[in-house]
Amino acid sequence: xxxxxxxxxxxxxxxxxxxxxxxxxxxxxxxxxxxxxxxxxxxxxxxxxxxxxxxxxxxxxxxxxxxxxxxxxxxxxxxxxxxxxxxxxxxxxxxxxxxxxxxxxxxxxxxxxxxxxxxxxxxxxxxxxxxxxxxxxxxxxxxxxxxxxxxxxxxxxxxxxxxxxxxxxxxxxxxxxxxxxxxxxxxxxxxxxxxxxxxxxxxxxxxxxxxxxxxxxxxxxxxxxxxxxxxxxxxxxxxxxxxxxxxxxxxxxxxxxxxxxxxxxxxxxxxxxxxxxxxxxxxxxxxxxxxxxxxxxxxxxxxxxxxxxxxxxxxxxxxxxxxxxxxxxx
Amino acid sequence: xxxxxxxxxxxxxxxxxxxxxxxxxxxxxxxxxxxxxxxxxxxxxxxxxxxxxxxxxxxxxxxxxxxxxxxxxxxxxxxxxxxxxxxxxxxxxxxxxxxxxxxxxxxxxxxxxxxxxxxxxxxxxxxxxxxxxxxxx
Lengths: 330, 137
Hints:
The structure holds two protein chains of two kinds. Chain A is of the alpha/beta class.
């Protein structure tokens, strides 16, 4: 079988799968998510086939330290969103063990609101070495849920602030979760993710220390923010008791509408796409560099002998990688 | 990169304690697998719907309640109905050898009693999933 025939078959298979994803078929959505996560041979034509169907979903990133109650809040959000008749997809990311490469993905336990409801789709994934949990695979998986017609996509991560992919790159709205009694929880979040949020939620509002935590958070944020509306963006909630959840959704909706009205959302989307293209370019380059290649050795000879400048050697390498690279992004 | 093995670990039915299931989940993680742990009080419908969404290779049931024949059969039936017949159904708990053989004849995988080593379970899963993937082409 020639490579050309294989490619045609893959394209046909990708188109067929994309068709079923767009129709909302759960088995197809699950399969497409797997192909994207694995970056299989089917993934690039699948990305292309789903491309025209993207952009309908609101993507909300939810991050926060362990113990803050992210999964419980996601569950409460699912219930609230479904009560409003909207469909919701969830990607729950947990860290992989650096020792074994395995992972325990336990966020599903809290998602009782997802049971027996075709309007909800929950997928757990392991970070697989990507710090902070956001990987190129996760970004492609969000695209699958978007194309499948979910109105809201919640991406739940631990968010160490060290991810090579900024949560801003994939989310329309970023929510950071804090909770009272986590000791230096707020301190631990000062690695960058704290300031970039659109909304902060102090969970466990029923805890007597919640108000103090909210004040501490406001104090820390007001030092780095010049937004006069900052106070309104720090919310109190009790996911367990279902309090403050519909308020959070209302704020998220209002925020998105304001962005739409100001034409900002399109600007953000274009910026996100630009960064994604850039990231793909870097990945292609990284994947294509081979220190043992004849070209690499030749370039070292030429530069060492003074016949070629370093910059020109680098450009030669980039051209060679671009010429030889396949379709797949890493 | 070797394709990760994804395992759904669930405690169906009325069992009230999950320490065994958590020990298994941790052992499979240490063996390099990705374990979706769904916790207690799962109905067969919830288990299979989760298995579908998570596109797992394996469903592992932890059953200590004596209801294993009913539960394993219900889950197997639903897996087959939902196009998940390729998923390895295994598990453990208090399951007499005779019942294990009965279930094996019905397409359920090997089951592991209380004294079984978690490393044996991990090795079994790896071998069986590799075999199934190879024959699926």
